[in-house]
């Protein structure tokens, strides 16, 4: 279990990356022990599922770090969404193990990208950001993704409690 970074940590890079890993692990913990039917079930009017949210988080990593910051050519950018892009989507032929592996692979690629950059480096040309003169710095992207994780892990807290009563970390 990854613990929250210590309150003595003062380095921006270590603090940001420590919290990002903390929330990545928290998202996985929220899904641990849920049977597949619960992973694929929705309990909310919006229709997203816990497994769909994990897939979405994998694509958040892909879009913000690979396509956005590193300007990698990435063929598949939006298959975490239904065709109308209104809710997170997992195809019936995608297993929970595949989605977990996708998530872990995208997190690993993000770690590689971030390790080779400074926090003040801006997103490369040719990626996601338009207009072309708008290229956010890596530190901004990390903060943005961190807040997205915090929000989504909170949503998983609620869904997990509704599914089986589990609360807490």
List the helices and strands and how they pair.
Layout (H helix, E strand, L loop, with lengths): L11 H20 L4 H4 L10 H20 L26 H20 L22 H27 L5
What are the defining features of this structure?
169 residues, mainly alpha, globular, MST-like, DinB family protein
Tell me about this structure.
This protein has 169 residues and is an all-alpha fold. It has one domain (28-164): dinb family like domain (Four Helix Bundle (Hemerythrin (Met), subunit A), Up-down Bundle), CATH 1.20.120.450. Helices cover 54% and strands 0% of the residues. It is globular, with a radius of gyration of 16 Å. The termini are close together. 27% of the residues are buried.
Average predicted confidence as pLDDT? 92
Query: Which regions contain 5 or more consecutive residues with pLDDT less than 50?
Result: none
Q: Considering the protein shown, what is the CATH homologous superfamily?
A: dinb family like domain
| CATH architecture name | Up-down Bundle
In short:
The chain is an all-alpha fold and 169 residues long. It has five helices and no strands.
